[in-house]
Amino acid sequence: MRKLSTRRRHPMALLALLALALLLTGAAYATVAPEPATAESASSVSEVEAGRQLFVVGCASCHGLNAQGVTTRGTGDNPGNYGPSLIGVGAAAVGFQMETGRMPMAQTAPQAVKKHVEYSQDEINQIAAYVASLAPGPSRPSDEDLDWQNVDKEGISEGGEFFRTNCTACHNSVGAGGALPSGRFAPTLKGVDPIHIYEAMLTGPQQMPVFSDDVLTPEDKRNVIAYVKTVQQQGNAGGIGGGGLGPVVDGMFVWLIGMGGLTAFAIWIGMHGTRSKKR
Known about the structure:
Blueprint: H1 11-32, H2 39-58, H3 60-63, E1 70-71, E2 82-83, H4 90-99, H5 121-134, H6 153-166, H7 168-171, E3 178-179, E4 185-186, H8 194-203, H9 218-233, H10 247-272
Antiparallel strand pairs: 1-2, 3-4
Signal peptide: 1-30
Subcellular location: Cell membrane
Protein name: Cytochrome bc1 complex cytochrome c subunit
């Protein structure tokens, strides 16, 4: 039979084991523990809170205290007001709507129109930060996404092809805008900032469809902007270009010249045509 060892452990062995356990515990905590707050993160939290305060004062009456949306049922000639939910719309939607003065709306209408901007740029950034914190959504484009001046001729051609295929039905072939049913309209793109053209494609305001990055990549959006801006910068040596005055004026020319010419020609035929003899 083997004899049991009578050797005793060194007194420091237990202390060494305890120190090793504490070291491993500290290393594990450092791996999973949240990072300490930095000045940048603290600034972000402060911006979100400032945006929330502005939102409660200026936006909550239509969009709800938590941006969940509000519906009020009206009576008679007053159909009531409706503010859609802003959860998940992202900072891009806030930037477009507020920097163009469309929000806050002056009064309920089929479509929000561009007007004087009510908030400062810092306040708009704060509200955008608050709305973006509610749920994931489209962020504002980067400077690279908006650098349309460096798009080559091939990119401009591709942007023009997409614009003519998907946008001219509402915005006209040169972006002059046009009327739509139910009192709505496609606004002119002349003089619109590139960032707002980009955000309109990204978020689909009003009746405009949404062209997400999966449908239209940031490069494609930049090409579209390059096409629109290039067309607007081109001169018309022979006078007003086709579509340059918008669909209403262009339609008037078609009726006065086209239909008027056909009517005059029909009258001339009736007056000078061969008359049948009576028997």
